[in-house]
Design the sequence.
């Protein structure tokens, strides 16, 4: 089983990948279960909780970051920085208890920019899709 927290810098409560099911040179399939205690659900919406669309997109971005980490033998001193989001489409609501199948794939690479697309399915049905670009950015050191 892949160590997700070793692959990317994201941590709970802002980690939206539970496990990686399959990873290839160009694509990844992962899973995330939407837990009723997810903090965002307390206010979105209290009487009818729905996974915020931006968090569904974030799960795709995190899957893409895991893919980039694997492709680049770890990120070293770089972090995957989201540089562009295009054509986000939301097809159906994602609710507490839903198991999200999260996919991301690399479409093109230009220097350190990775042009990608992905989406989330619930019970085999598309819930959202998005195209995005990530760059491997050097981690800046901050002195205190």
Sequence:
């Amino acid at each position: 089983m892949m160590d997700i927290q070793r692959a990317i810098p994201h941590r709970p409560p802002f980690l939206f990948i539970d496990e990686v099911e399959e990873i290839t040179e160009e694509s990844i399939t992962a899973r995330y279960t939407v837990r009723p205690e997810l903090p965002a659900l307390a206010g979105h919406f209290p009487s009818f909780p729905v996974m915020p669309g931006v968090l569904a997109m974030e799960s795709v971005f995190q899957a893409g970051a895991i893919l980039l980490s694997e492709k680049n033998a770890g990120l070293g001193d770089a972090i995957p920085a989201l540089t562009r989001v295009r054509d986000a489409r939301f097809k159906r609501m994602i609710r507490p208890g839903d198991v999200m199948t999260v996919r991301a794939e690399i479409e093109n690479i230009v220097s350190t920019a990775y042009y990608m697309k992905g989406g989330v399915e619930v019970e085999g049905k598309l819930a959202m899709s998005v195209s995005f670009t990530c760059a491997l950015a050097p981690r800046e050191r901050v002195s205190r």
